[in-house]
Design a protein that fits this description.
The chain has about 290 residues and is α+β, with helices and mostly antiparallel strands. Helices cover about 45% and strands about 15% of the residues. It has eleven helices and six strands. A four-stranded antiparallel β-sheet has the order 4-5-3-6, with helices on both faces.
Length: about 290
């Protein structure tokens, strides 16, 4: 059994039966006290007061007490308390916008774009490559043709990332929702798929000076709803946006929990959960912390 599988099994055992709030508190402890994240606001979030004293609030209806006047970092990525709430709120905003668009006769497509994780050295380099490639593929004549010829009228996009501790590699990719004024015909859909994916592959190669190859077979462009699927209260959109905006509040969305696709690929909070059962000098712990 590999160290990663052993760590997964141990993490599952330690977290079994715990509520979302308990898991969130464990994640906060790991991020703040064991990782010592180098962002002061995240380290202090919900642990320090904005004033010299910390008032205690009591909810008569629920018969619960809580601290008041605490620092809130509002970090959408690293904070186990702020990020899920803020991202879920953002997902709901986008969901409502998408539903309005669909209700007025528009169409939406889910788009996933990746780069080759073997061909960038640092996560900063990967982020830069994603952003520059997106700007190249969705600007100028490319965007103009999509808008004038096929009726593209907007998009939402977010960067997602999973991590492979064994190889110390990140897998950066984009999740997008592309909006069109009206449904595309089969021929138009295929033409748009070829255009977007082709532009993306060329942009990645150009922006990496030929070092990174984004294989066309790994890119996805699919209609958000098919004729055989149903749209009930935006549920399918919410599920897609939960993934797009990262680890959303499991307390609100149910059992959804973002994990990596392959056995050795981990989502950000899955990595944090693994560290709950690891010693601070364990090589896996040190890789995840780094």
């Amino acid at each position: 059994m590999t160290p990663l599988i052993e760590a997964r099994n141990l993490s599952d055992t330690l977290l079994a039966g715990k509520s979302y709030r308990e898991i969130r508190d464990i994640r906060q402890y790991i991020v703040q006290d064991r990782f010592h994240v180098p962002i002061r606001s995240v380290r202090l979030c919900s642990k320090a007061s904005v004033a010299s004293t910390i008032p205690i609030n009591f909810n008569e209806k629920e018969r619960k007490a809580s601290y008041g006047g605490l620092i809130v970092c509002h970090n959408k990525v690293l904070c186990p308390k702020c990020a899920p709430r803020l991202r879920y709120e953002k997902a709901l905003q986008v969901e409502r916008a998408i539903n309005r668009h669909l209700d007025t006769g528009g169409e939406a497509y889910a788009l996933t774009l990746t780069v080759n994780s073997e061909d960038y050295e640092t996560i900063e380099e990967g982020f830069d490559l994603l952003n520059h490639s997106w700007n190249s593929a969705f600007s100028g004549r490319h965007r103009r043709e999509l808008r004038l010829k096929y009726g593209m009228c907007g998009y939402f996009k977010a960067i997602d990332n999973t991590f492979q501790p064994a190889r110390f590699k990140t897998h950066l990719h984009l999740h997008c929702l592309v909006l069109f004024k009206k449904p595309l015909s089969i021929e138009e859909e295929e033409a748009v798929r070829r255009k977007i994916i082709g532009s993306w592959v060329r942009s990645v190669k150009y922006n990496s000076e030929g070092k990174n190859i984004a294989y066309e077979s790994l890119q996805r462009f699919t209609k958000l709803y098919t004729p055989t699927s149903s749209r009930t209260d935006g549920e399918a959109i919410a599920q897609y946006l939960v993934k797009a905006f990262g680890e959303a509040a499991r307390e609100i969305t149910g059992a959804y929990n973002k994990t990596g696709r392959s056995a050795d690929s981990l989502g950000i909070w899955e990595m944090v959960d693994l560290c709950h059962g690891l010693d601070p000098d364990d090589p896996l712990f040190l890789r995840i912390k780094a």
